Amino acid sequence: MKVCKFGGTSVASAEQVKKVAAIVQSDEQRRFVVVSAPGKRDSADIKVTDLLIDLANAVIAGEEIEDKIQAVVKRYEENAQGLGLDREISDIIEADLRTRCEQAIKVSPEYVLDSLKASGEDNNAKMIAMYFNSIGIEARYVSPEEGLVVNEPPARTMALSEAYNNLSSLKDSNEIIVFPGFFGYTAQGVLRTFDRGGSDITGAILAAAVGADIYENFTDVDCVFSANPKVVNNPAEITEITYREMRELSYAGFSVFHDEALMPVFKLKIPVNIKNTNNPASPGTRIVSESTINRRPVTGISADAGFSILYVSKYLMNREIGFGRKLLQILEEENISYEHTPSGLDDISVIIRSHQVDPEKEQRIVKRVYDELHADDVHFRHGFSMIVVVGEGMNNNTGLAARAATAISRTGANIEMINQGSSEVSLSFGVKQQFEDAILKALYEEFFQPVNV
Ligand SMILES: Nc1ncnc2c1ncn2[C@@H]1O[C@H](COP(=O)(O)OP(=O)(O)O)[C@@H](O)[C@H]1O
Ligand SMILES: N[C@@H](CC(=O)OP(=O)(O)O)C(=O)O
């Protein structure tokens, strides 16, 4: 039994949805289809999710929304027409959007965003189920309301354990289940969306709930590449990668698969297969618990921008019991999660995602650290990227850190932070954002195209 998730690019147009249907029809094990909202048809296009966010912001600001509603409806209308569906479906979608705009604003601005964002996948799943039935694939749309229970705000949106129990009965369905990605409902029945790219998470939850043999994640590339193909020319293909490696790489920039989507399948050791909707015959990349093939020490190199550093120094910090805890507690009270905490004897840096702070919050944190921890120097620095070198083979390979640092130095960039996780499956470097691409290329050359090999 296979659960298949089709990303935004795979359902962006009628032509793409027809490919999805052919993929489902070609293998009777493909019983579950999780879909995203229509994505980009070409590089200049706008994802439906982004059109919906734009619409939601206009609703919240009390601005004119007519053009924005029409922009969304047009995307579905074109797809419905190309799939030979009755025009009525786009009228239903338009009515649904108007209802969401009117009702959600009575609840809260956050709910307007959640409700409209979720409509992208919800309406698409309904339309795709309708199309499947029109061509003889017996299919049924299932709403996440039927069991995908997530936690209450302000906690991060995560599926609760009962979600798996609730959804497990779907495995007995005789029809193909078409399930919208990207959102669930709290126990109180309130809709909540996942992070961007979160339809991957829905697919993983469903795969775990029904005990799938494999979770197929269909996208627009043949496989996961060892570096972002938009930056590195023709990067090496990864045929097999472990959950741990993929987790590290998706954390920082491998946008092809959401890092949170590994958790549900990892626990049950359900393999993930990343495949291309435009080339389904290609074997793709398998994400597995244990690697079965011998590979080079480095499997992939990723890079992600948008990090800030909170720098704190205090003479004799190393002797002060509880200093680190108190510092992290201040961040916890400000609702900030941290990524790394490299430290010296008298100083510590806390690396965070920049979107979590604004100037006001920043000032408050700096003041609190001075007042409560009596630090000598406290300041934020912004505009950093994290570069992560990942490979299961790294822990018994000497000199890798030196090679990476030398390659980075060739770009003229200063390394602001180095962190090697205790599992030794990854090595992270904090660098100024403007060097990100050059460093990625330099590291790729170092580990994948060594001159003397
Ligand atoms: N290392 C990588 N390997 C493959 N694709 C990558 C990598 N890093 C970034 N990407 C990008 O991820 C994209 C696929 O993810 P996404 O845009 O979320 O697709 P989907 O619409 O299928 O969800 C690819 O088109 C590619 O540009
Ligand atoms: N549509 C949502 C969720 C998602 O997973 O999309 P995609 O499969 O296109 O990455 C987004 O754009 O974030």
UniProtKB/TrEMBL annotation:
Domain of life: Bacteria
A GO MF term: aspartate kinase activity
EC class (word): transferase
InterPro entries assigned: AceGlu_kinase-like_sf (IPR036393), ACT-like_dom_sf (IPR045865), ACT_Aspartokinase (IPR054352), ACT_dom (IPR002912), Asp/Glu/Uridylate_kinase (IPR001048), Asp_kin_monofn (IPR005260), Asp_kinase (IPR001341), Aspartate_kinase_CS (IPR018042)
Pfam families: AA_kinase (PF00696), ACT_9 (PF22468)
Recorded metabolic or biological pathway in which this protein acts: Amino-acid biosynthesis; L-lysine biosynthesis via DAP pathway; (S)-tetrahydrodipicolinate from L-aspartate: step 1/4; Amino-acid biosynthesis; L-methionine biosynthesis via de novo pathway; L-homoserine from L-aspartate: step 1/3; Amino-acid biosynthesis; L-threonine biosynthesis; L-threonine from L-aspartate: step 1/5
EC id: 2.7.2.4
Reaction catalyzed: L-aspartate + ATP = 4-phospho-L-aspartate + ADP
Domain ACT as annotated: residue spans: 389-453
Entry keyword set: Amino-acid biosynthesis, ATP-binding, Diaminopimelate biosynthesis, Kinase, Lysine biosynthesis, Nucleotide-binding, Transferase
Function comment: Catalyzes the phosphorylation of the beta-carboxyl group of aspartic acid with ATP to yield 4-phospho-L-aspartate, which is involved in the branched biosynthetic pathway leading to the biosynthesis of amino acids threonine, isoleucine and methionine.
Family indicated by similarity: Belongs to the aspartokinase family.
Protein name stated in the entry: Aspartokinase
Organism: Kurthia populi
